[in-house]
Amino acid sequence: MGVDGWTAERIPDLSGRTFVVTGATSGLGLATTRALAARGARVVLAVRDEEKGRRAAASQPGADLEVRRLDLADLDSVREFADRMHADHRRVDVLINNAGVMATPHTLSPQGHELQFATNHLGHFALTGLLLDLLLAGRDPRVVTVTSVNHQRAKPPFADPARERRYSPMGCYNTSKLANAIFGVELHRRLSAAASPLRSILAHPGYTATNLQTGATTGMWRILLGRIGNPLLAQPADHGAWPQLFAATDPTAPSGGLIAPGGPGELRGHPAPGKLSPAAADPEHGRRLWELSEQATGVRFDSLRSPA
To answer: What pTM value is reported for the model?
Structure first.
């Protein structure tokens, strides 16, 4: 995988290809949408706030964009989104599981799951499974799941996933990002076992200035991350989007791999192979998370089997 000095200027022509980007109204999602659309892609902006989605689309005149409502925390909304996609599209070439929330107060989703785990992992698990047939019909199809360097310090989400006994805003965020990483690797295993052409690739943006930090709804984390960390340490969103853009478009992006910023600590820089934690790469963790996610969402990837 040759990525030295890679930037969005190296994205190939994407005319005729359809991308779905979750969380496309700001930050990494908006930067990703703009870069894909600039290369001729049709981009579906999967957004919780349709008015913000329309404003984001209007800021890119001439681009081939669709705005569709998707609340990843609500599994009913995920199913409605998938149904509409099936009604209007015969294929999806790339799904970018980008949206996320960080350091929220303890809150439960409409289906009773801890909000960060529901939004960051379960919603994307369900979305991927419900769009799987459209992805399998795509050209050079890929699922890109955005994790975080923080996944390396997290524990798997198998004990008390609703966090009813003990809740840490950042601890649960880190756990949700580990779940993203476990899911991306386990999806790769199952796709490989099925000899599927669909690639599952992980990416993370390092430390990037987005409203993920400024929108953290617990005051301490909003101050530490948004008001102090972003101005001093963070790279701009268009650079932070490079790893997921590479994963989504570059011919050499490896299924099952992690693309990360190549600088010290994977915090900033051009795309490079990233480091997965042992917990993320553990096949037993993959099996257990898959079973937990199927039970929580009711979504099964019927065309894929568990690897032996």
So the answer is: 0.92
Q: Which residues constitute the domain of residue 81?
A: 14-297
CA pair distance 59, 223, nearest whole angstrom:
29
What's the pLDDT tens digit per position in 92-108?
999 999 999 999 999 99
Distance CA(206)–CA(262), nearest Å, equals 9
- Residue among 6, 19, 125, 173 flagged as catalytic: 173
Q: Is residue 81 part of a domain?
A: yes
Total structural domains in the chain?
A: 1
DSSP classification of residue 82: H
For residue 274, the 8-state DSSP code is P
CA proximity to 28, closest of 170, 240, 233: 240
Q: What average pLDDT is seen over the chain?
A: 91
Give the residues across from 94 on adjacent strands.
19, 142
Mark whether 173 is an active-site residue.
yes
Whole-number Å distance between alpha carbons of 174 and 180: 10
307 domain residue, yes or no: no
CATH number, domain at 65? 3.40.50.720
Over 80: is that where the pLDDT of 238 sits?
yes
Phi/psi of residue 47, each to 5°? -135, 150
